[in-house]
Design goal:
This protein has helices at about 15-25, 35-50, 55-60; strands at about 1-5, 10. A two-stranded antiparallel sheet has the order 1-2. Helix content is about 55%, strand content about 5%. It is built from 3 helices and 2 strands; from the N terminus they run ββααα. By secondary structure, the protein is mostly helical.
C-alpha cells in the first residue's frame, strides 16, 4: 500500500523478512537494501504488464478516469 502523503511503501513483516533473507543469502542478486529490491520489483512488474513509466506518469497527470494506452 502506498501512503500518498509520504510516498512510502508499506510492506508487511512476513514479506519484509522474506526480502531481507533473499538479500542476505543471495548477494549475487545485487540488492543492497529492501528499498532497492522493492523499487526494482515494481519497475519489473510494470514492464511485464506492458506499462512504461512515462505512459504511467502521463496517465496519472490526466487522472485515473482515463485509460492507459
Amino acid at each position: 500500500m502506498v501512503d500518498e502523503i509520504s510516498n512510502e511503501v508499506k510492506v508487511d513483516s512476513r514479506t519484509l523478512k522474506m526480502i531481507s533473507t533473499l538479500i542476505r543469502d543471495y548477494p549475487e542478486l545485487g540488492f543492497k537494501s529492501v528499498e532497492e529490491f522493492v523499487n526494482y520489483a515494481a519497475l519489473d512488474l510494470l514492464k511485464r504488464k506492458g506499462l512504461e513509466i512515462g505512459r504511467l506518469q502521463t496517465w496519472m497527470r490526466k487522472g485515473s478516469n482515463s485509460s492507459i494506452k
